[in-house]
């Protein structure tokens, strides 16, 4: 599955992408905010990541900058407690350019097209930038904090929880994804 936004291509990872993934993610400031990525993150982890099988109901994508063709991150869906969950990360060089919101909006559109009615998300309490992205694309805080595991930190970390009702067409921003 592929999805095109104004500036990004969301596409599956291929085995030959491992070096681009490694170059984009090999930064402790990124990995510490992810659930499954360990720190240090090396070639074996990148090769495993690009080889992950796709679940057609919960696709995950590489985020590719259309203008340059450069892999700048990943975005997609997974499962958390039986619900579809959105997640994303971007290379430090892509921060502050609106790419996280654009990629998240693209994943939300894919989720709608697949018939999902609700998405959940969370961000570690010490990563408020991710919370701003979630709110910009329409997620609403549940008012709950959960303890979620971070492989990069090697333990549980407080996570602020969010939800998005896809049936209510709750996207805050009318910008096309």
Can you offer a commentary on this structure?
The protein is α+β, with helices and mostly antiparallel strands and 177 residues long. Helix content is 25%, strand content 34%. The strands form 2 sheets. The protein has a 5-stranded antiparallel β-sheet, sandwiched between helices. Strands 6-8-7 form a 3-stranded antiparallel β-sheet, covered by helices on one side. α1 (18-25) crosses α3 (43-50). The chain is globular. The two termini are 16 Å apart. This is GNAT family N-acetyltransferase. Keywords: Acyltransferase, Transferase.
Number of helices: 5
What is Rg?
Answer: 15 Å
- Contiguous low-pLDDT stretches (5 residues minimum) are 170-177
Number of strands: 8
Spell the H/E element sequence. Answer: EEHHHEEEHEHEE
Helix content: 10-25%
CATH class: Alpha Beta
Sheet with most strands: 5 strands, antiparallel
What spatial form do the alpha-carbon principal axes imply?
globular
CATH architecture: 3-Layer(aba) Sandwich
Task: Summarize the model shown.
This is GNAT family N-acetyltransferase. This protein has 177 residues and is an alpha+beta fold.
Overview features:
Aminopeptidase, 177 residues, 34% strand, alpha+beta, globular, 25% helix, five-stranded antiparallel beta sheet, acyltransferase activity, transferring groups other than amino-acyl groups, three-stranded antiparallel beta sheet, disordered C terminus, Acyl_CoA_acyltransferase
């Amino acid at each position: 599955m592929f999805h095109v936004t104004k500036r990004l291509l969301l596409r599956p990872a291929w085995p030959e992408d491992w070096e681009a993934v490694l170059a984009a993610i090999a930064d402790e400031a990124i990995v510490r905010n992810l659930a499954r990525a360990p720190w240090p993150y090396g070639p074996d982890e990148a090769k495993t990541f690009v080889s992950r099988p796709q679940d057609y109901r919960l696709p995950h994508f590489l985020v590719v900058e259309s203008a340059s063709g450069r892999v700048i991150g990943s975005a997609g869906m997974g499962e958390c407690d039986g619900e579809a969950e959105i997640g994303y990360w971007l290379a430090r060089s892509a921060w502050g350019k609106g790419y996280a919101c654009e990629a998240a909006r693209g994943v939300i559109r894919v989720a709608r097209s697949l018939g999902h009615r609700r998405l959940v998300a969370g961000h570690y309490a010490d990563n408020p930038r991710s919370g701003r992205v979630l709110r910009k694309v329409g997620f609403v805080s549940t008012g709950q904090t959960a303890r979620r595991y971070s492989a990069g930190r090697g333990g549980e970390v407080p996570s602020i929880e969010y939800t998005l009702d896809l049936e209510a067409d709750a996207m805050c921003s009318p910008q096309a994804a």
